[in-house]
Each structure stands twice: as C-alpha cells, then as structure tokens.
Amino acid sequence: MVAIIIGLILIAFTVAAALPCFLNWGSEIIMFLKGCAPVLSALIGILAIFIGVADIKDKKEAAKEEEASKKYEEEHKETADKQ
C-alpha cells in the first residue's frame, strides 16, 4: 500500500514538473529521455539476452528430466511385468 502511494506521489510530481505553470522542466525532461534512450535500450537488450539464455538452459534441463522420468517409468513397468 505504501509503495502505491509513493508511486502516485512520484507520478504527480513528474506531471507537475513537466507543466509550464509549475516547474516548467518539460524541455529538460525531453533532453533526459533523449539521452537515456540509447543506454536504456542497450541495458534492456542485455537483459533480454540473459533471459533468453536462461530460458534455453531451462528447456534443456526440462527435456533431460522428462527423459529421465520416462526411463524410470519404463524400468518400473518392466519390473512390475516380471513379477
């Protein structure tokens, strides 16, 4: 609940800062966004690569576990049939 209230306060401050009748920081905000866009896109790209690699590793591990589970079931079926 506190996080939501703080978030709303920060959003209200950002809107008030950009309006010409309060702080009139609109042009500075645009310059900041222009400057941080390449850096932000590079960081998001790196994060996407790490997530993709982790996803591929998880899929390989799940496939190995599925294969081991099938082998275990087959072995137990064979021993149950023999008895």
What would you say this structure looks like, in words?
The protein has 83 residues and is an all-alpha fold. The protein starts with a helix and ends with a helix. The model has no long low-confidence stretch (mean pLDDT 91).
Question: What's the topology here?
Answer:
Elements: H1 2-18, H2 26-82
Helix tally equals: 2
How many strand units?
0
Global geometry: elongated
SSE string: HH
Overall helicity? over 70%
Mean pLDDT: 91
CA-atom Rg in angstroms: 27 Å
CA-CA gap between termini: 61 Å
Largest sheet: none
Note poorly predicted spans: none
Strand content: under 5%
- In terms of structural class, how would the helical and strand content be classed? mainly alpha
Structure characteristics:
single chain; 83 residues; mainly alpha; 2 helices; elongated
Summarize the structure.
The chain has helices spanning 2-18, 26-82.
